[in-house]
Amino acid sequence: xxxxxxxxxxxxxxxxxxxxxxxxxxxxxxxxxxxxxxxxxxxxxxxxxxxxxxxxxxxxxxxxxxxxxxxxxxxxxxxxxxxxxxxxxxxxxxxxxxxxxxxxxxxxxxxxxxxxxxxxxxxxxxxxxxxxxxxxxxxxxxxxxxxxxxxxxxxxxxxxxxxxxxxxxxxxxxxxxxxxxxxxxxxxxxxxxxxxxxxxxxxxxxxxxxxxxxxxxxxxxxxxxxxxxxxxxxxxxxxxxxxxxxxxxxxxxxxxxxxx
Length: 260
Known about the structure:
With 260 residues, the protein is α/β, with parallel strands linked by helices. The chain is built from 11 helices and 10 strands. Strand 2 (14-19), helix 1 and strand 3 form a beta-alpha-beta unit. The protein is globular, with a radius of gyration of 19 Å.
């Protein structure tokens, strides 16, 4: 693994991946995105229960490495963007719960990366934005599709058309992030959230993710049919049997199944 991405040892099914280019505000260079995708693939192969993605230094991620991209021809720029998309899509497709821990600014591809995660928690006072139109581009790593699905078309258009960042406090109000905490409390809060999520049944959480994502693009009737079709596997699972036993005995459940 190159130094641009650092992976901590798993802790009770919790994997932490940290973008580690603080001198470049964790910008997504060609090598960085390849390392990020490899790290996510490795965590998924090890059947992670929760995946935390965070940044080093004062930024979460400033987006694509524009200094690196300036020296590229169009084909190389397209290949670079394809690499960013591949890493972000791998995060979005992960069966485990993914959490973006926004320790600092998240611009462009950095916010697109966070949008691919299931949950986002942010430090107070940071800025987030899809700023591509400032340099004559548009969000090309999922932003035009994931941001409207997260905060609604009108607010998403305003953020993308103006390219003006918003504060984490404003982002909380529009549903772009799930929590805002003081910067000094962010690591502990992220770990506490990860431990809570890791204590839940992995197959149940994986099913929730799949049903919500797949159902959003279908009619209510089709979504309900998906939900009902998923029930037999869950209601017949060892984890559900353990959950029922734990409820009856007044103790916390001890789930052992991994995500499907």
